[in-house]
Design goal:
The radius of gyration is 37 Å and the shape is elongated. Helix 7 crosses helix 11 and helix 13 crosses helix 16. About 29% of the residues have low confidence. The protein is mostly helical and 565 residues long. The protein has 17 helices and 13 strands. The chain binds protoporphyrin IX containing FE (HEM). Keywords: Heme, Iron, Metal-binding, Oxidoreductase, Peroxidase.
Length: 565
């Protein structure tokens, strides 16, 4: 150890002079470098700070300006809103909508639903109407609901109101009417104004939309009063959906998690065994649900909900038939879109088409059947509804096959506006029935006559009024006989101004499209045939209706419709 330490100190002593010589330039160089680096760093950091500081200052100044603008805007908005709100609160309310705000105990939900629907109609269609008015109020439960009434704008207003308006108009010179969160508020309303009941027919809305006109111009001119979509002032409402349906008895539950999604087995013989078709079809199914696949039970459940003594002529059967027809009627064979497959009627985009007004009755009952038998697809259920209703009302047995599948979301909802309009002629009928749906004249006549031998038109839904036959809940060939035998005069439905044909006794009606069936000789031929031969009519109707239910349904070898084009 000593030897090592001795060798080390000898070596250190011998290199020491070299170290001393090198130390001087090293210290000098280091000091120089340190100095330079320090200055450079300082200069750089000051420059950076300078830039950042000024940049931030600029941002802050601009930000403050933006804030100022936003603040001013929101302040203005708020002031405008408060002004309109106080102004609106003093408007009169139509008598026939007042009680809509008082939900009877237990029916809050229904009340809400009907409001939502009304609001939808308002926002989408009636908002263009210069005669309409909307306001939000708070009622029991702190819920807000819109309601409509008619401000006849030319009339005089009170001095107080005119001052308020003047103030509003001076402050907001660019707005010709005061706007409240997107709703146009008509500026002048007389304080002693009493709104009258008004029905805007869905048919007129559709026609006006199709022709690109504003909604209410034609109809509103004739009946300038309140829009009322759910209640018919002359008849007590019979569409209180939540009150009518009988409570459904829940099916047997076999596990703690009854709605497990199960994979449906795909047989090896299926065309679906090709790799393209190896799609897993999933259905909501209760495990070991004894009802699974038992369509007779579903048929029975539909049959059970048809008789309704308070509804129209005592049955919702006609409504069910129309519902099924509308589920299929938007098929377009050229693009392959639409049709019943996919069950798209369950989506609001489709169901809220004005052409579907009034079909909530059938839909709500069928949806309850679905709750009881969740394994059936909506597409199957919605088609089966019409089939069962026709049979229950004395119609023919219709060849109905299950296997339609539901599309998971509303992307497959076809464009709206494809449903037929009742005020058109042959060209329109051919466009809908022949070009789009692929029916010939004979099928067209059988379908329209078969549909319109049932039920009737409701002022509150379509704007038309009355039924086609003396017994609207019996399926027979009466439509054709009445069409040929009665005298038909073109008149207007007094409350809506909608044109329709009435017979001399004014107890039966025909739509313009119905009369077209005797105006056009090619159609009339089949009307005469079916008026004479009830059996042939039943057979042809059943075939045409079955064809309707299969439009757009492309089945695999196992009968399942896996794709909705
Ligand atoms: C040109 C074709 C058609 C037009 C323009 C048309 C139009 C109408 C209109 C406006 C109503 C009155 C709706 C209401 O106010 O409640 C109605 C009712 C009805 N339609 Fe059609 N329809 C056509 C074809 C069909 C077809 C093909 C069927 C069935 C096969 C059908 C079945 C029905 C039924 C059953 C009702 C009565 C609904 C009820 O009483 O609730 N319609 N139709």
């Amino acid at each position: 150890m000593d030897r090592i330490a001795g060798a080390y100190s000898n070596a250190a002593r011998s290199i020491e002079p070299i170290g001393r010589i090198l130390l001087i330039p090293y210290v000098a160089l280091r000091a120089a470098l340190q100095l330079t680096h320090y200055n450079t760093l300082n200069v750089l950091s000051y420059t950076k700070l300078f830039i950042l500081y000024h940049y931030n200052m600029i941002l802050m100044i601009n930000g403050a300006k933006e804030d100022e603008i936003t603040f001013k805007d929101s302040w203005d908005q708020k002031k405008r809103f408060n002004l309109t709100r106080t102004f609106n609160e003093r408007r009169p309310v139509a008598e026939n909508v007042k009680d809509w705000f008082e939900a009877p105990s237990g029916f809050q939900d229904f009340n809400d639903k009907s409001w939502k629907r009304t609001e939808y109609y308002y926002e989408r269609y009636i908002v263009h109407a210069p005669i309409c008015y909307i306001k939000r109020i708070t009622f029991a439960g702190n819920k807000t609901a819109p309601y409509l009434f008619d401000p006849i704008s030319e009339n005089t207003i009170s001095e107080d109101e005119s001052l308020q308006l003047l103030e509003a108009e001076t402050k907001f010179p660019n707005s010709d009417a005061i706007r409240d969160s997107g709703h146009v508020i008509a500026p002048r309303v007389p304080s002693d104004f009493t709104p009258k009941s008004y029905i805007l027919s869905s048919e007129s809305v559709r026609q006006n939309h199709n022709s690109g006109q504003l909604v209410s111009q034609s109809v509103a001119a004739k009946s300038p009063s309140i829009t009322q979509l759910f209640d018919d002032p002359e008849k007590p409402s019979t569409v209180a959906a939540p009150t009518a349906p009988p409570p459904l008895v829940p099916g047997p539950v076999t596990t703690s998690d009854p709605y497990v999604t199960e994979e449906r087995p795909i047989k090896s013989s299926d065309s679906s065994s090709s790799f393209l078709y190896k799609i897993k079809i999933r259905r909501k199914q209760k495990p070991q649900d004894p009802t699974y696949g038992n369509y007779e039970l579903v048929r029975q459940a539909i049959r059970d909900c048809l008789p309704k003594p308070d509804y129209d002529d005592g049955s919702i059967g006609p409504n069910m038939v129309r519902f099924t027809w509308h589920c299929c009627a938007h098929f377009d064979r050229e693009s392959g879109t639409g049709g019943c497959n996919g069950g798209t009627m369950r989506f609001a985009q489709e169901f809220n088409d004005p052409g579907n007004t009034g079909l909530h009755t059938a839909k709500s009952y069928l949806d309850q059947v679905h709750e009881k038998y969740p394994w059936i697809s909506f597409a199957d259920l919605y088609t089966l509804g019409g089939v069962v209703a026709i049979e229950a009302m004395g119609g023919p047995r219709i060849d109905w096959r299950p296997g339609r599948t539901d599309c998971p979301d509303s992307k497959k909802v076809p464009p709206m506006g494809r449903l037929p309009l009742a005020t058109k002629g042959t060209e329109h009928l051919h466009e809908v029935f022949t070009d789009r749906l692929g029916f010939n004249d004979q099928e067209l006549v059988a379908l329209i006559g078969g549909g319109h031998t049932l039920g009737g038109c409701h002022v509150k839904f379509s704007g038309f009024d009355g039924s086609w036959t003396a017994n609207p809940i019996k399926f027979d060939n009466d439509f054709f006989r009445v069409l040929l035998e009665d005298q038909w005069n073109l008149e207007e439905v007094p409350r809506t101004g909608m044109p329709q044909y009435n017979n001399a006794d004014h107890n039966l009606m025909m739509l313009i499209t119905d009369i077209e069936l005797i105006k056009n000789p090619a159609f009339k031929y089949w009307v005469e045939v079916y008026a004479k031969d009830s059996e042939l009519f039943m057979k042809d109707f059943a075939t045409a209706f079955a064809k309707l239910l299969e439009l757009g349904v492309h089945r695999d070898a196992d009968g399942i419709a896996r794709t909705k084009v």
